[in-house]
Amino acid sequence: MSAVLNAPPVAKFTPDDLFRLPDGGKGFELVNGEPREMEMSFHSAFVAGRVCTQLSIFVEARQLGWVSPEGTSFRCFPDDESRVRRADTAFHRLDRLTSKQAMTEGHCPIVPDLVVEVISPNDLSYDVDEKRNEWLDAGAKLVWVIHPVRQSVHAYGEHGSIRLFRRNEELTAEPVLPDFRVPVADLFKLPGTT
């Protein structure tokens, strides 16, 4: 006769549990009740910073809304209220995120209009696709998936549109920021290069 051991059920993490992790859970997302560590390469983080800077300059000059940097956590997924994701950069239009909401502690409950995901060498395509679809399903109008090695950007629209921007082209943010334009090559420019 063999005995069957029944392991106790594994307790699922909650969004508030992320704040109890070291460094307040920075570097972690919460998917299906399990914390997922995000491992971003230096180069990918550098590119994310360049994108954040370009968007911030454009948005602040026109007072269009909020640009949030890498590490901002979002709890804005109607199909799973416990899911927490972090964008590499995000933008909310001013009319969608109030000052009061922006100053509230915790995970942002408002889905961004534009989400930026920068690929790192260890990212799996399945995970990137899953995350991109989660943002779009939650109501994001535009998701940029940036490929630092290929030096290109895939722009995914809310109605299934996909556009590839190559190194020699200008990146746009339509329909979210219709007048935004930046040479794709500028996103990947390294210090000390011309």
Question: What's a quick, concise take on this entry?
Answer:
This protein has helices at 15-18, 42-62, 99-102, 125-138, 184-187, and strands at 28-31, 34-37, 65-68, 73-74, 85-86, 89-93, 114-118, 142-147, 152-157, 162-165, 170-173, 177-183. The chain is an alpha+beta fold and 194 residues long.
Q: The biggest beta sheet, please?
A: 6 strands, mixed
Strand portion: 25-35%
Reading the helices and strands in chain order gives HEEHEEEEHEHEEEEEH
Helix content: 10-25%
The CATH class is identified as Alpha Beta
Q: Strand order, biggest sheet?
A: 3-6-7-8-9-10
What is the structural class? alpha+beta
The CATH topology is given as: tt1808, chain A
Using the CA coordinates, give the radius of gyration.
18 Å
> Considering the protein shown, what is the CATH homologous superfamily?
tt1808, chain A
Report what the structure shows.
There is one protein chain. The protein is globular. With 194 residues, the protein is an alpha+beta fold. It has a single domain, classed as tt1808, chain A (Alpha-Beta Complex), CATH 3.90.1570.10. A 6-stranded mixed sheet has the order 3-6-7-8-9-10, with helices on both faces. It has helices at residues 15-18, 42-62, 99-102, 125-138, 184-187; strands spanning 28-31, 34-37, 65-68, 73-74, 85-86, 89-93, 114-118, 142-147, 152-157, 162-165, 170-173, 177-183. The termini are far apart. 24% of the residues lie in helices and 27% in strands. It has 5 helices and 12 strands. The model has no long low-confidence stretch (mean pLDDT 91).
